[in-house]
Write a structure and sequence with these properties.
The complex is a heterodimer of chains A (about 250) and B (about 240). Chain A has about 250 residues and is of the alpha+beta class. The mean pLDDT of chain A is about 95. Chain A is about 30% helix and about 25% strand. In chain A, the strands form 2 sheets. In chain A, strands 2-1-10-5-6 form a 5-stranded mixed beta sheet. In chain A, strands 3, 4, 7, 8 and 9 form a 5-stranded antiparallel beta sheet that branches. Chain B has about 240 residues and is mostly helical. In chain B, about 65% of the residues lie in helices and about 5% in strands. In chain B, the strands form 2 sheets. In chain B, strands 1-4 form a two-stranded antiparallel ribbon. A two-stranded antiparallel ribbon of chain B has the order 2-3. The mean pLDDT of chain B is about 95. The interface between A and B is large, with 54 and 49 residues.
Amino acid sequence: MRPSRRRTLNRLAALVAAIPLAGCDKLSRAPWFTRLLGAAEPLNHAVQRVVSPSTSMAREFTPADLSPEFRSNGTADPENDDYQDLAENGFADWKLEVAGLVEHPLALSLADLRAMPSRTQITRHDCVEGWSAIGQWTGVPLAAVLQRAGLRREARYLVFYCADPMEGTPESAYYESIGLDDAFHPQTILAYGLNGRDLPVANGAPLRLRVERQLGYKMAKYVMRIEAVESFARIAGGKGGYWEDRGYEWYAGI
Amino acid sequence: MTAEPSSLQRRHSLPVRIMHWINVVAVATLLMSGLQIFNAHRALYWGASSYTGKPPLFVLPDGFPGWATLPGVQWLAMGRRWHLFFAWVLVVNGIAYIVYSIASGHARRDFIPTRADWRSIGGSIVQHLRLRHPTGDEALRYNVLQRLAYLAIVFVIFPFLVLMGLGLSPRLDAAWPALVDAFGGRQSVRTLHFIAAAVLVLFVVVHLFEVLVSGPYNQVRSMITGKFRVPKEKP
């Protein structure tokens, strides 16, 4: 090999090696590029809906599979005085508000929810970070609550407003949203019980959402209010959830 | 010893060259963004869940260093965006490559070892260990170790890696519970996804090492322009 060629090749190799190191981090901050990468999300959603029909059920496990202690992630005890007052009183004064595009807005106490049909399921909780834990959840199917409230035709999403501020301020309160296919799925429940006991504060007392075919961040804890909406574009950061507003996918089935 | 110049021959077809470099980009971004995702939870387990009362199989408390991850800072959301986008690039390119390799005869001609190849396996191992590379006509065909390595990577390791990646999706688990159960549960699948990636890294290391010791300029050129200079037979 001639020396000039060798030099050219060496320079080329150095350039190629430098692109991933410097360029990729720049690309990660370029809006056009992150939009391009984000194109995979609707593709994944569409393909997964075909491969895994909306009626497909998440695997259910046996009591032998239960994790000894169900890990608490994110908020473990909301820094919110109103919430703390409710908790002190055993959530006797707490009411779940169901509002937005519904025929009959509701305010349901824990006793009201417990009087409704219930479902108990032992499922695997998959965190976006990579870990899994298995817990037994008891709650009211979201579909039963929605049937009582009567969804209006324009309703496309359900938004869950939570009691836990993520960065100290009320504006940073956790929230999430799901589509109607997941909302009416039989395993989608509003859980008030974990492993046969009342849902602990660390896991979202008094009520948390379970959406068993998506990742953990969809399963809002400390749910205070459910709103049926046509679009979540005007809510908080406009991406449909606290983590979605920070770059995570709205569709968390993968 | 004859003074005739070594001849320039066609080696890699244009589709193979294009798909090879697309694969380089996809594998590099998937590997680095995969290490970013691993860093969000730096342990591997066996079974369905991570919390069974038993300790993890493997823990890496400090995680992978920033120079090996994509992005370089801890940023799970962006790591997932890279990973879930380039997974499509890898799969579409990989399927195109497998279809092309079978349809064009590339796989049969260049990957499936012949009887003579099987007989030469001992000698080939010795030649590789001594870093001696074939010359003349022998340099134009893949030797038995190359054939076996490419067969394993293309038809076993890559499909397995992709399958284990799909098994991590909670929505696909609902559709194909048997896939996850067959490999011991979702956390086992995550561990196997990681191990398959490690095997792929080992392949790439050996692959690059062989390129370096067998004439890197000639080898890289043959994967860019398709032209390969056949090494002269030693006297």
